[in-house]
Amino acid sequence: MFKGLNELTRLLNGRLLFLLFLLLCCSASPYASAVVVEDGDVEFAIFSLNNELPPLSKNKARMLYRGKSKKISGSLKIVLVDLPEASIHREDFYKMLLGKSVSQMNGYWAGLAFSGKGSPPEELDSDDIKQILKWLNDNPNGIAYAPIESVPDEVNILITVPQGE
Amino acid sequence: MLLNRLLLVTLSLLILAPAEAGIELTENIQLSGFGSTAISKTDNRTPLFISREIVDEACYDCDTIFGLQLDIDIADNFGASGQVVKRTQDHWSDPELEWAYLSYEYDDFEVRAGRLRLPLFLVSEYYYVGQAYPWARPPQEVYDSILGFTSYDGVSLAWNYELSDGLQLTVSPYYGFERVNKVDLGVVALEFDTDYMAGIYVDLVGFNYRIHSGFMQAKYQQRPSPIVEKLDVYTLGGEYSYDSWQWMAEIEIDRIQTNWYASIIYAFDAFSPYFTYAESHQSRKSKAGALGLRYDATSTISLNLEYQMIFSTEEGNRGQFVTSPLVYGESSDVDLVTLSVNFVF
Description:
The complex is a heterodimer of chains A (165) and B (345). By secondary structure, chain A is an alpha/beta fold. Chain A is built from six helices and seven strands. Chain A has helices at 2-11, 14-26, 58-65, 88-98, 102-114, 129-138; strands at 44-48, 71-72, 76-77, 79-82, 122-123, 142-147, 156-161. Chain B has 345 residues and is mainly beta. Chain B has a single domain (2-344), classed as Porin (Beta Barrel), CATH 2.40.160. Chain B is built from two helices and 18 strands. Chain B has helices at residues 2-13, 140-143, and strands spanning 23-26, 29-42, 65-75, 78-86, 96-106, 109-117, 151-164, 167-176, 179-185, 188-206, 209-222, 228-242, 245-254, 257-266, 271-282, 286-296, 301-312, 334-344. A 16-stranded antiparallel β-barrel of chain B has the order 2-3-4-5-6-7-8-10-11-12-13-14-15-16-17-18. In chain B, strand 14 and strand 15 (271-282) form a beta hairpin. Mean pLDDT of chain B is 92; it is low at 13-20. The interface between A and B is large, with 53 and 65 residues.
């Protein structure tokens, strides 16, 4: 199998191969298809106190929490907050939304932070809803996540996880 | 040089807090750091890998890296970043200013000027941050293909465009001005008088994948030769993750060589076993397999245990060594074992 690939690279000159690959890349499907692991019966809300923030699609939520996108609606800069590392909610949330463990996420954030592409979300001292609401109050463009039953009615729920959309 | 040393020492003294997201010196200034070190040993007397030169005696400082990064928010959309790194080839007293730039963001555009990282490969931007990638070292076949040069002095422009909610396009041309690049290859010191290094990369990014394609052209003279040479480098890489699986593959092509690797990683709680297969052709000729296990001890500390076997496909060829193993009267094949530790703060 590997021999075959070598032959191919030798046959094609670099430029041609490069263009070919570029073409292949551009035709790649934008619809990522990770299956969300249903973990127990916890449901999370991603929410804000800012009523101007529009609902998020699942794709958008995933891009935001992977640090690959920082804006919504083209220009609104979003700030994320994380629950403490020891919080079981944090573990569950990332597993559900992204299928990743906390240690995998830490590795990704290290890559982003040290390439100047973003810094990990600020971390709260506790996963108490009062703390989360206080932080959101201080950060008008902030969004947070919490188990849906702990979230008060008056907040702006942007999406629920794992239900979505 | 003295400045680098002072900076490294002063900044080191500040490392007290265990905060994972670095240390906030003020609201607008953030200090963070990273490091790796390893015990590594081969079964061959020929020094292995550029700038690491691992041999058949246990080496405790062949892979040692320590870096500090300072990020400053100067004003809205206007920032500065500096990174000082004791690379594997540097002495502690003489670290390298790996990057130092000013950045300005406007709308979907970002301009950077100063000393910048060459964006050739998938992990180029965090090449020295072991915590950020799964392996003990980025695969040498690809990452050492341009002799380990990682930076340029110049300007870059990045255009980040959201194609859809889940897909982002980045197009980034860059231009590096004249400078001298040096590298030691065993006992030989190479010097390149680089006229310019210019290139572009195009990235497609989804939440669980990234495709990175790059092109760079460098015009240079290898001292003391008066001949001006041009080198076109083409790179393509992709990474994709699904559930607990992650795949990464990259290829590098230029007129003197073709190199590629493919890697598969499985995350199992705090353990991530991985396997990488890699080949080098033309100027270096080798095939290699590496089997490793990464252990995330805490959110900021990880360990790697890795066993790598490199087979020469032409007797006497340099392969991944710094020189031909014939110079040492050695076999062209080599096995390497590495136990490394990585951290960030």
